[in-house]
Amino acid sequence: MPVIEVDGLRKRYGDTVAVDDIGFSVEQGEIFGIIGPNGAGKTTTVECIAGLRKPDGGRVRVLDLDPLRDRARLRQVLGVQLQHGMLPDKLRVGEALALYRSFYRDGADPERLLAELGLTAKRKTAFDNLSGGQAQRLSIALALIGKPRIAILDELTTGLDPHARRDTWELVERVRDVGVTVLLVTHFMEEAQRLCDRIAIIDGGRLAALDTPRGLIARAGRGGRVRFRAAEPVDRFALKELPEVDGVSRQGAETVVTGTGNLLHAVSSELVRQRVTTTEIQFEQATLDDAFLAITGRAMEGDPDE
């Protein structure tokens, strides 16, 4: 059953078209990802869904509510963590949760949320003294304090170190496991591939693709790649002739072979036949990065904060 329905959404700022005829639906209980490069229109899309921006055209419904006309009712069932959400520097963690809890008729227990998100020891800590990971956990707590049916999490892990990022992923999975539908906005491919049930790729303000992570990866037309370093010259033409191989290229000191099927076995057997000794060999499955490149024609940018 869809809990979010977007049809023909359009939004422009002056001469710039930020969102151009986007449409999708989000099913109850799923983690639905919106991915794309910086400036693709991701945040504008979710701000229209949350009722924070007025669309120029199209239709948006959240739990059958109009985000603008029914804004007060929507606030009681929708939790939002925005990319650039900030709190006063001296506001303490416990104070922030108590303040946000007062906005809801039937909110969650602040102490329980503090415990579940590992923030109990930080109850009296000021916002500007929190680490990046702790601040993100607090932002999740604030998004959940109203016991929402849907949570929008926008660029949740930007700027976090790898350990804090993975801790945050586990928190998102726990949010979904208690019955909350999650709309996750990110430009991290690994994050989307791990967490999301379905993913919408937005590029240049338009919906470029919508599918499961596995379905999107299948569109890359690439089963995987084998990388190796060889101690002797390699007959690359013989590698290209293998039925499992789509292409062979050089990347620095490495030879990279792309293809499908039992690619690693085919390449390894050919190297043995050529009497080539490999100093390093590894197999990599196709990823969401490959899918994004295949669908949009360009690679995704990295984290601007790293």
Describe this structure in words.
The model has no long low-confidence stretch (mean pLDDT 90). The longest helix is centred in the middle third of the chain and has 16 residues. With 306 residues, the protein is of the alpha/beta class. Helix 5 runs parallel beside helix 6. It is built from eleven helices and 13 strands. Helices cover 31% and strands 29% of the residues.
The helix-strand sequence is: EEEHEHEHHHEHEHEEHEHEEHEH
Strand order of the largest sheet: 5-6-7-3-8-9
Specify the number of helices.
11
Number of β-strand runs: 13
Low-confidence stretches: none
How large a portion of the residues is in β-strands, by DSSP E?
A: 25-35%
Q: What level of helicity do the residues show?
A: 25-40%
What is the terminal-to-terminal distance?
39 Å
Question: Could you give a short description of this structure?
Answer:
The chain has helices at 42-49, 71-75, 93-101, 110-116, 132-144, 162-177, 189-195, 213-218, 236-240, 263-273, 288-296; strands at 2-13, 16-27, 31-35, 57-62, 78-81, 150-154, 181-186, 198-203, 206-211, 224-230, 245-251, 254-259, 278-285. By secondary structure, the chain is α/β, with parallel strands linked by helices.
How are the elements arranged and paired?
Elements: E1 2-13, E2 16-27, E3 31-35, H1 42-49, E4 57-62, H2 71-75, E5 78-81, H3 93-101, H4 110-116, H5 132-144, E6 150-154, H6 162-177, E7 181-186, H7 189-195, E8 198-203, E9 206-211, H8 213-218, E10 224-230, H9 236-240, E11 245-251, E12 254-259, H10 263-273, E13 278-285, H11 288-296
Parallel strand pairs: 3-7, 3-8, 5-6, 6-7
Antiparallel strand pairs: 1-2, 1-4, 8-9, 10-12, 10-13, 11-12
Helix pairs in contact: 5-6
